[in-house]
Amino acid sequence: xxxxxxxxxxxxxxxxxxxxxxxxxxxxxxxxxxxxxxxxxxxxxxxxxxxxxxxxxxxxxxxxxxxxxxxxxxxxxxxxxxxxxxxxxxxxxxxxxxxxxxxxxxxxxxxxxxxxxxxxxxxxxxxxxxxxxxxxxxxxxxxxxxxxxxxxxxxxxxxxxxxxxxxxxxxxxxxxxxxxxxxxxxxxxxxxxxxxxxxxxxxxxxxxxxxxxxxxxxxxxxxxxxxxxxxxxxxxxxxxxxxxxxxxxxxxxxxxxxxxxxxxxxxxxxxxxxxxxxxxxxxxxxxxxxxxxxxxxxxxxxxxxxxxxxxxxxxxxxxxxxxxxxxxxxxxxxxxxxxxxxxxxxxxxxxxxxxxxxxxxxxxxxxxxxxxxxxxxxxxxxxxxxxxxxxxxxxxxxxxxxxxxxxxxxxxxxxxxxxxxxxxxxxxxxxxxxxxxxxxxx
Length: 442
Hints:
Shape: elongated
Strand content: 5-15%
Largest sheet: 4 strands, antiparallel
Helix content: 55-70%
């Protein structure tokens, strides 16, 4: 029996998809969502810089033995008789055992050379990039799930076809043994038949391994076990191929695409970072209004007498100015670095557009070629089916052999296996194009 390349089906096993998290309860998407939430909080922090900062400090102290005790004038301590007190006179009762301190400080930025606004713009751009990254990854995972589900269905069909081939191959080996015993076949031909059967067994092992691998990958990708809801849609593929590749490229490069929107947002973030760096240039002062109110007294406010003594509280208003005059060139370097990062973001966006365009062309060519191969296999199967019918008629009439019929049936099974292989390639390319060209729905 001739060896068939279709027996070696390792090409259908390896699909270049990473092992990722699931869509429902997806850990990767949940992590990306948390990054979005954190970026939103960063935006709120940046906007909060526009508002005043109010700080309150409270302290209460109790001393069992105050540092300063009572001050008294003892009797007879004055040399002038008329002024000599008849008894001790207390001049100062001493420190109270308790002391309360309250202070409120309010700081309001007045002018920062646009740094606050630039910071807000940068954080908003980063948050937008994180959100678009989440949407893009979700769309990519949906395409991957569909590809793996259809691949798993095709692999299961291939496994069944290989098992049918194996059953026919065992019968062929049995016939070869009988032929050798009768002297009508050389032992070498029998060995070749057995080796071909071993190739089929190897292909079965590889297909079963691929089925298990795809199943595990799908379990990691999604908790939805209804994978058979995904099927090879030949009509959708044909409709897509009716579109010119230029139309698909234009759709993939639309500004609405999540991947491009994420890169565009990152470029806005670098532009804002550059403005932020320039706002800190030498000699550009930041102005802030600082207001302080304090209260310090042994009497607790509102609950003890004399708490509102005018000597117990204070109020101050001041304007602060802060600027950097010299730091060895660090600020100048930070401005140049921000400009370089802005230019890098521009180049990244251009490179991404170039890569997307190239990928669309490659996947379109792969899809078109795979569908052409499927069509050729289907036409080939028409001839092979006719050969099976002819050989069966010859065998039944006594003019043909069982070996010839088995070979014809195995060739037909090989063609069906090849068709399933091509369908895997076609569906993978179709989903890649869907991912690259479809606009987000929300």
